[in-house]
Each structure stands twice: as C-alpha cells, then as structure tokens.
Amino acid sequence: MEKLSVRENEEKAKEIWSDILEILKTRLPESSFNTWFVKTVGVGYTGDRLIVEAPNSFWIEWIESNYRKVINDILKELGKNLNIIFTPKAKEIEDTVEEAPSSKRVIFSPKYPLNPRFTFDSFIVGKSNEMAYHAATRVAQNPGQEYNPLFIYGGVGLGKTHLLNAIGNFIYSKSPKIRAALIRCEDLMNELIDSLQRKRMKEFREKYRSVDILLIDDIQFLQDKNILQEELFHTFNYLFEKQKQIVMTSDRSPQQIYALEERLVSRFQWGLVTEIGKPDFETRLAITKRKVEEEKILLSEEVIIFIAENIRDNVRSIEGAIKILKAYMSLTKSLVTLDKAKELLANFIKPTPNVTMQEVLRVVAQEFKLTPYDLKSKTRKKEVVLARQIAMYIARNVIGLSLSAIGSYFGGKDHTTVLHSIQKIEQMKDDPQIEVLLNEINRKLKLI
Known about the structure:
GMP Synthetase, Chain A, domain 3, Helicase, Ruva Protein, domain 3, 21 helices, lipid-binding, DNA-binding, DnaA_dom
C-alpha cells in the first residue's frame, strides 16, 4: 500500500469517518447523534486502523458502551476491515494532569459513580412515569430554572435512579463547566460522620455548597438522622438561594418520610413532587424487549409477552427474569419454550387478583349504601368521605395505581388529596370497625 503523507493520512481519516457518520446519522435518534458524534473527528489512518478523536474519556466510554455494535455493523456494510480506536483530545489529557482535585467539575462518590447506561434515550417512557421523565429532561436542560427542587418518588426498581443518572449524564455532556454532585443519602451521612470525626466540616460544607447541581438518591434515609437533616437544611437553603438545582429521589413522598422535620418537608415541596408508578402492560412489554436486546438472547414473542403480562412489580424483576432465562440457555444450549419459561420463572410470578377500579367503586359504594357516582362526586358528607378514602386506599394498595391515576378516577383530585385519604385509612385500619369493614370489602372483591 502506498505510504501517505501526514496531511493525506489525516484527510483520509476524516473522509472515512465522515462516511461512517453519514450512515450513523440515519440509525440513531437525532438527539443521540448530535450529543455524542458531532464533536468527533477522524485524525489518523494506517490502513487497518482508524483513529477517531472525541472530546474526552467520558465520551469514549459512552460511545464504546452504547454505540460500538452499530458502528461495527456499518463497517461491515461498507466492506471495511477497520479497527476504530477512539482517543481523547490532547487538551483533555493536559487538563487532567494540571487540574487540582478541588477544582473538579463533577463530584461523584467512589461508591456511587455516574452510570453511563442510564440516559434519557435508554429510559422507557409510559403512562406511569411520563411526568417524572419530562420533568427530569426539563431540569437537565434548564438547571435551577424550573422545578427546583425536583422530588421523584416511587417503589423499588421503577426508574428513579435511572432518571437521576440521566440528568447527570446529560448535563455532563452538554455543560462541561457545570459542577454537579451525585450521592446516595446513606453515603452522605457516612461522609458527614467522617467529617465530624476528622474535624473537617468546613471542607464538607464547601464541597456540597459549591455545586451547581446536587443529585441525592434515596433521600428517605434522612429519617431519624437529625444531624444530617440540620446540615442538609442549611445546604438546601444556600443552593436554592443561589438558584442551584436540587434533585432528590425517594421510595415515598416527603410527607411519608418518618420523623422528617416539617421545614424540610416544606422545602422538598417547593418545586415539583412527582411519582413513578408501576409500569402498565405496554410499558412492561417495551422494557422486556429492550432488556432482551441488551442481553443479546433470542426469546420468542410469546415468552416476551408472558414476562410482560406476569412480572408487574418493577424493571429489576423483569431484568432478573431475563437473566435466569439467559443462564438456562447458556447452560443447556437450547431455546426457552413458553412452558419452560413458566417453570423457570415460577418464583417471579405472584398470583394477583384481577380487580378493576370499577369493581372497587361498585363494592365500596354497595357496602356504604351509596352509588359509584356518590364516591366520584365532590360531596363532603361524612359517610361519603370515608367510603371514598377506603376506595382510594384499595386502589393504591391492591391495584397499585399511582396517586395521579387514582385522582383522575375521583373527579381530578390532586395527588396530595389522594395521599391524605390513603394515610387516613392507614391510621384507622387497626380500629376494629374499620378492620371489619375492610375485610368485608376485600371478601367481596375476592381478595381473601
């Protein structure tokens, strides 16, 4: 092969990479392509190797983790037997040597690094999480301007941590000068204790009050942590006054966090409080298909539908089920039939009562000698209020509807009203009369 000059080598590299990018642009969402590939450029070519420069090492890790397969597929289509090597810009390498630890742009706990797989593109949006998703994207695009703080809550494995990381990933890629901190509340507590013991509270406060964005996962661990609540109260005030963005996730709403100071409950609700509910069938089906693709296994449509129909709790349960099927296929070198999937996933599948909201309204109304219309009306009569609260309680704890979904069934009531009703029954359920009433309603709904 004829030896190329340095300039010809660079021009050839740019030409080959541009050809690849042209095809890549048609294979990816516009937002993904613009975010991760517009700033890449071919810089070197040796016949069997193409050197591509990316803005920094994070960019490279992201491309390798998420887009290497599609790039390799394009190379095959073009008939090019090339090994593409990504390299960070020389400036980034110099910066990492010269930059002092105290001036790092992004602070991530060593125990809890930013997960490059958790992006807005990889998040499956459905009715149960669309409000949280759209709020998170708005916050990432305009930190400190809207929904500050943003408080996302919901059960285990429903995508709260995914959205928290997606915000961090988006900001990291778009705004390299912004300083962000991502940490679990439990790790924050341990760091606070360590700082107290070492008499380094000044450094602790400077670290978290110097950020532009504070992302805290599992904020429910604040309960009974008086010292951390005190410290977070002042940090919250400082950041909020400076219009710095705060995002928190929790397994429960601010009002439900036990022994959380009222002043913090109030502040956590200053922006937007939004819930992620259990995914509906369409969302579970999309999640299942995505996870099957990620695990690179072949499952029949009927097995995929079986998983989506029967594993309703959360995304982690779906992931666990798929890993079991993958392990079986790897060990036995055979495909998974529907019968085999039922056998292997028996422990994942909980028999759940097939109860609809209409049935709940009918049975509860009948028990109180009312009509479903009465429950959905705005009347504040004592017997109607109690019946309505019980119906909301069953909708939440049996059917698993989100607070907003329940509110829509009762004339568009907001989530705080629904939450208050559910909490009221939680407090009353040990009362013998209420206990008998609940048991009778559950019996008629064939729940016991």
